[in-house]
User: What shape does this take?
Amino acid sequence: MKHPRISLVPIAVLAAAIAAPAAAQSEDKSGPYFGVSGGIALPSDSDNSGEFDAAVPATADFAEIPEATELEWQSEFNNGFAISGQAGYAFENGFRVELEGSYTEYNVDSHSGLTVGGADIDGVDSAVLTRGAADPANPLVGDVLADGQGKVKNFGLFANAFYDIDTGSAFTPYVGAGVGYQWTDAEYAPSAVLVGDDDDGAFAYQLMAGASVELSDSAELFGQYTYRENLEDADIPLTLLPATLGVESQQSILSAGVRFKFGG
Assistant: This one.
């Protein structure tokens, strides 16, 4: 009795087709890595708020400003830049952990809405702040503030955790979050009058989403969106007035970079 002849070629092709995706899914992408990135910082406005640390004496033209009187104003910022460096480790299960050092910088666009003790003084003679003599030739407080000038710089150290979503291809979307500490250096100099220039630190958090594209076994490009915020305002002592101002730090960051990987 003759047995039917079975060709081994179709079977081999079918086996290879089944094995290929499995091999791709099981590819070991674990191991240490480091990366660098840069991009655009998109800062939110800062609702600055604080209070007078000492009384401002009365003059012939202006009443006393008592100690502990509240003051507030809003600062708007131009877009700036962001740079970052990362060192981390990727696990086989898709999770990554990393340490990140970051720096962002952006310029002041304008200040507005100065209130002292709840009263808006944008329309008052600017001598109310300098305690000079009132004069119709003096600019108004709002005019002085409108010419922003100054900059804000942030330097942060963060511990991040990510989850890479395996697509079975060179394209890998991911999400992540981080906590750390960020120092904020605020220089406010409306109309070239230095109001405050100091720095303060606070705990901060960030949320991230992005995607990477594998270039080789040891390198990949990535693009990322980051939202970053200090948990407390930076307390900046003012130089023009005996007051301390709380400056907010909230930023959206669009960045791109490269990671270099070392096999696990």
Observations:
- The chain has one domain: 8-261.
